[in-house]
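Hi L.,

You mentioned the student needs an example of a multi-chain input paired with its predicted structure. This one should do, with 862 residues in total across all chains.
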Amino acid sequence: MSAPTGDDGSAMPVTIRLDSQQFQVAAANPTGMEKTVALTFLLGLAGFAGFGAAFWVNASNVWLGMTLGVGFLGLGVGMVAWGKYLMPRGPFSESRHSMVPEPADRERIIGDFSSRGKVVIERRTFLLKILGAAGAVFGVVAMFPLIRSLGPVPTDFSIATTWRPDSLLVNIDGSPVHSDSLEFGGMLTVFPEGDVGGPLSQTMLIRQQPPAGETHIVTGPGRETWGPLGYLAFSKVCTHAGCPIGLYQQVTHQLLCPCHQSLFDVGPGQAAQPVFGPAPRPLPQLPLYVDAHGFLRAQAPYDEPVGPGYWYRGND
Amino acid sequence: MIDGLYDWFDNRLNLSSGGRKAINKIFPDHWSFMIGEIALYSFVVLLATGVFLTLYFVPSTTDVVYTGPYLPLDGVHMSAAYQSTINLSFSVRSGLLMRQMHHWAANIFVGAIVVHMGRVFFTGAFRRPREINWIIGMNMLILAIFNGFLGYSLPDDLVSGTGIRISYSILESLPFVGTYLANFLFGGSFPGNILIPRFYVLHVLILPAVIAGLLGAHLTLLVRQKHTQFKGHGATEHNVVGAPMWPTFIAKTQGFLFLVAAVSAILGAVVQINPIWLYGPYRPYVVTYAVQPDWYMGWLDGGLRIMPHWETVFWNRWMIPNAFFPAIVLPGITFTVLMLWPFIEQRITGDRADHQLLDRPRDRPKRTALGVAVLSFYLVLFGASATDVLANYLTVSLNSVLTSFQILVFVVPAITYPVTLKICRELQATPGGGKTKIHNIVMRSAEGGYSTVPSAPRAGDTPPELEPVALDTSVLAPALVGSPAYEAVDRSSLGARAAAGNGLDGGGSGDAGGLDGAGDSPEEIVDGNGATPAGGGVFRIPRNYR
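Structure written out for the whole complex:
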């Protein structure tokens, strides 16, 4: 159906009387519906009043939320019912016109744009270039305060943790860890002295029974002295996404990262290789020794970056 | 009073010139158009409850010692952010309600956006000329997810802190710039002490402002381009059929605002969400079991979990870390393809025409099947974010759960695609699918044969379909006083006239007093929804509507 048009092709108004069916309400029983809507509004009113009362007497969260919710619910149901049943049932329509412009309109705006602006600008390309250069310089220098001062450039991995040669191992209370503080099979979170709670330096200390006749546990070539008296220290930062590796399963000698379920094997002689889950690399091991007073110390910092990988990490 | 006020503004702003068009704007009646409104109104709830929270939340990592009504944390060191969140939950009246409403509204917000996007995708509403609004919507989805994550992080509790740690690692995994970006965003290495203030300003100012701006653009384009609509019921490529802005749509949409607020309030009242006091304050070296993000981050977490343990190293110098693939590449591809989808589909189908009428999903089986397959892929990833919980619950090994998900993530889409395709084709072949049901009367002839005839309309049947009244090309006239058309309009003639043209073209315009008499005989009033048998009834203006 097309709208009637006049002689000049424009749409001619059609007269619609308000008693046409589209203007009637949709409700079968408008009076009843009006009562229903009134009731829901009253319910809403009661809900809001209840919220006020609940707030006044400092009632529980359930009372506060339910009264407020009932208040909104009453208003919402009432408004929707009012709109759906007690307003003109329709349908109504409006015409829609293409978003594609008339060619004449387009030509006129392009003509105006070119005659006033584009042409005169094209005659002044030198000015444009200088303006562009100034803008570019501003853009670059704006980067410095906007981005560069936000934080430091990434640090060299070797100073990223606070472990240094001869760092004393301390527990979460800051007390030094003595070489008889763990049973075989025990586990303790340790930090370098002076950085208790350090997010990157957190380390897991595990004690295992060395092989018969040995004093050290060796987890690989070059690590012959790293595990004195069966003490092994591994970075607690998961090599997958950096969560602290929280769970030590004593029976299987495995460490579990609860974030994404990576498992690391720390059985006797094992260098915390990942055996399950997404973690791609073993946990770095911290070389330990027992000092003259029987306390555990680091021989040296970690010899590789701890935690998850990053672009510049390479293989070191 | 209102007339006077209107005159005052009209004489200064000439509201009357465009005002009629505005109040006559048509909104299609189909229920699926409501989902976007839910998104809009949950954003309103978010703003309202969020403003309340800013009055009490302290965005600071300063170390404090908690003393207060929540005894399990008495004397515990924590950040000021965590402490203020505990305080606004326990010591501010209705604070916990506002916090839980805020969190629930955030989950509803992202959910409504996703469902709305699904509606737009499966019905082809994104096609020309609406590609721009599709892209704006996609950007709002991304920002909503980011802002949800930021808000989730602000309380500085153990679970959210672990999430931030993971996000730092994800940022670091970007080639070339990753470590720099992570350092610049966090003001150094993780966690630093500037993180919470920065997340706060992003969460309460920058991202909401951008979302609000995009929302304005989204709605402006919607008004400019007008709604899409399903065909039928008088709807064509050249009109919009539905309810006018004033008064019907205003009433319904206000109602929806209240309903969204009601649902948020009731959920906030009875369904506990993010009880941070049970998690404890964040400590970088503590972690808890079953760490799960909010639902809209689940697919990313699932991807991180089921990714095989690959890591690529180039020339011993550069590394592409494991998290890069599931946490950067996957969402990167996801959002790029989604953003470009209108153009990709144009390329595939060669269809570059304007489309104002929507597709029924079954009529585009390949698009529908593709959409369902992709959704099922993300659904499997979402499920994979609960591998540990599932393993515990089903008492099977974590290993088999993980392997199952690694297989399912490819198998499930490979099954859902052909199945959806088949369902669509079957539905297409069903005659009269989706048509209004008509009661049939079974007749037995004297010879014993059976036949059916459609029954006459009965009370409660779907009202007869009416011709839409074109508001923009019509002049409204009151009913004629004293005329038969006013006193009693014969239903059958009315139907015939409605079918013949646009409503009634009687010459009664100008009889301004006509409406006032309408209520004089309310008892005789019969409403117009077909409750009286066709052809036999009288039709008058109901008393309630004048």
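You could point out the following to them. The helical segments of chain A are 30-56, 61-85, 103-122, 125-146. The first helix of chain A runs from residue 30 to 56.

Best wishes,
N.
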